[in-house]
Write a structure and sequence with these properties.
This protein is an alpha/beta fold. The chain has 3 domains: 235 residues, Rossmann fold, CATH 3.40.50.300; 178 residues, P-loop containing nucleotide triphosphate hydrolases (Rossmann fold, 3-Layer(aba) Sandwich); 69 residues, no CATH class. The protein has 17 helices and 24 strands. The protein has a 6-stranded mixed sheet, with helices on both faces. Helix 6 links the parallel strand 9 and strand 10. It is globular. The chain binds adenosine-5'-triphosphate and magnesium ion. Adenosine-5'-triphosphate (ATP) binds next to strand 2, helix 1 and helix 14.
Length: 512
């Protein structure tokens, strides 16, 4: 090891930790350490065991063997109460805030400050203001959490850990849901935290981020630590290789392809968000068979409401939606699905899966009442099993069996179940909203190639993504959405990243 004099203090050490779940060794003799004031990135493919390792440190699971050492003492962590007392805080992959509560109520939840029998909201608000100011978090303690953009909700989670005096903060895929600007702000906050002696474990699938912000990088695969490296000594290709154990092609292979007839037609569509603000204004476009039509835009410019209005999850306030010649405006999701839509929704846990159902049942969620899954009103378990087995293999869903509940899968593997189901159905139109969010580089490569295969078979694909690289790699035409409107439509080959970036930021558009 390196000489003791130059190495900063190790604040957390995981020594020989193993954790077995039914059929999966999620942590296999893991060694890991965190130095005071560092950002230590944790990388690994979907299901590698990153979240599990963090849950062990945070006390949500108990290790079968091995030690967790905090401040040079073996810690006995039986629950988050113990880890919080040791100065450990965690921001989870799927947020745990209560949307109808205020920031202050969420922050004090489980740690209520009481004065003469009632909650001392003023004292809590004052502390939140103080923390917010210290780290430039810009959080209003009285705001309702559900009204805040995702980036601010995440800061509330961070405030929650700091409110409890965390010295070690675990961030599990914090940037997956952030806009590029929000991610930049988060990195600034992370650096402010480390400058004040807080140590951070940072999980992400974005290799560029890791190389830009981490002091050290640990790569996991199949429950084991593969290596710990310095960013200066590695690059994206090498990290990808370490993660998945093979070479990953980081670009998409796509040939020119003739588009056919119009499949999706959107005319003058408007929609309101849950606060009743009109976030989609008079949007018109069409997508033809055999083309990928990408919608680029900074998150929060109406993409969510647009895709909900197209898929039956939200009532448009005006306009018309036609799929393969059929007027489906305002129809419920099942009618739209039956007209030939595959939908990869933005919020996988709310709209994509039933977490308490098995993978098998989730794989047939849209078709279970039809042949081959039902015959004469009777469910056909064999057909369901076969379908699940085939898709698990094709989409490389990491699970011990098809009987496992979707809620027990790792985040990325939950996403793979939805994508597998939706991209394997005989459809005319795919609406894919952030299809590769939370997926590892190897899985992204596969799903991109599946999307292109569908387009080559003549399916119309509407791709909504906050990742400009993904939009540029897959789309034949690109529309830019800004403040609820489509401000430009261009052929991908006639535009550049820079041009799209300008439109996304609201630069004036002539006629496109
Ligand atoms: N509560 C649980 N019960 C059973 N199995 C579980 C449970 N939690 C995790 N697993 C399994 O442990 C393995 C590791 O999962 P984990 O969530 O740690 O992966 P991850 O590296 O965080 O992946 P991702 O990048 O997809 O979030 C997976 O095979 C997962 O299915
Ligand atoms: Mg995870």
């Amino acid at each position: 090891m390196t000489e003791k004099t130059t190495t900063p203090k190790v604040i957390l050490e995981v020594k020989g930790v193993s954790k077995q779940f039914p059929g999966v060794l999620a942590s296999d003799n893991v060694n890991f350490d965190l130095r005071e004031g560092e950002i230590h990135a944790l990388l690994g493919e979907n299901g590698a065991g990153k979240s599990t390792l963090m849950n062990l440190i945070y006390g949500l699971h108990r290790p079968d063997k091995g030690d967790i050492i905090v401040n040079e003492k073996i810690a006995s962590i039986h629950s988050p109460n113990d880890s919080i007392a040791l100065g450990i805080g965690m921001v989870h992959q799927h947020f745990m805030l209560i949307p109808v509560f205020t920031v202050a109520e969420n922050v004090m939840l489980g740690d209520e400050t009481v004065k003469r029998g009632s909650l001392d909201r003023a004292a809590v608000a004052a502390r939140i203001n103080e923390i917010s100011k210290q780290y430039g978090l810009d959080i209003d303690p009285n705001a309702i959490v559900g009204d805040l953009p995702v980036g601010l909700q995440q800061r509330v989670e961070i405030v929650k850990t700091l409110y409890r005096h965390a010295k070690i903060v675990i961030l599990d895929e914090p940037t997956a849901v952030l806009t590029p600007q929000e991610a930049e702000d988060l990195f600034r906050i992370m650096h402010d935290l480390t400058a004040r002696g807080v140590s951070i474990i940072f999980i992400t699938h974005k290799l560029k981020e890791v190389l830009a912000v981490a002091d050290r990088i640990t790569v996991m695969r199949a429950g084991r630590v593969i290596n710990t490296v310095n960013p200066a000594e590695t690059d994206s290709a090498q990290l990808a290789n370490m993660m998945v154990g093979r070479q990953v092609i980081l670009t998409v292979d796509k040939q020119d392809h003739e588009a056919t007839e119009e499949i999706l037609k959107v005319e003058g569509l408007s929609a309101r968000d849950q606060r009743d603000l009109e976030t989609v204004h008079n949007v018109s476009f069409s997508v033809r068979g055999g083309e990928v039509f990408g919608i680029a835009g900074v998150q929060g410019n109406g993409q969510t409401e647009l895709s909900e209005a197209l898929t039956g999850l939200r009532h448009p306030t005006s306009g018309k939606v036609t799929i393969a010649g059929k007027d489906l405006t305002g129809k419920p999701p099942r009618s739209i699905t039956e007209a030939g839509l595959a939908h990869i929704p933005e919020d996988r846990q709310r709209h994509g899966l039933v977490l308490s159902y098995s993978i098998t049942d989730n794989m047939a969620l849209c078709d279970y009442y039809r042949p081959p899954f039902s015959q004469h009103g009777v469910i056909q378990p064999k057909a369901l099993d076969e379908n699940a087995r085939k898709l698990i293999q094709a989409f490389d869903v990491r699970t011990p069996s098809a009987f496992v509940n979707a809620g027990k899968l790792s985040g990325g593997n939950q996403q793979k179940v939805i994508v597998a189901r939706e991209l394997s159905r005989p459809v005319k139109l795919v609406i894919a909203n952030q299809p590769t969010r939370g997926l590892d580089v190897g899985s992204i490569e596969y799903i991109h190639s599946e999307i292109i295969k569908m387009r080559d078979r003549g399916v119309a694909v509407l791709l909504i993504s906050a990742e400009l690289d993904e939009i540029m790699a897959l789309s034949d035409r690109i529309a830019v959405m800004y403040r609820g409107q489509i401000v430009a439509v261009v052929e991908t080959k006639n535009t550049t990243r820079e041009q799209l970036g300008l439109w996304m930021a609201g630069a004036h558009v002539e006629t496109a």
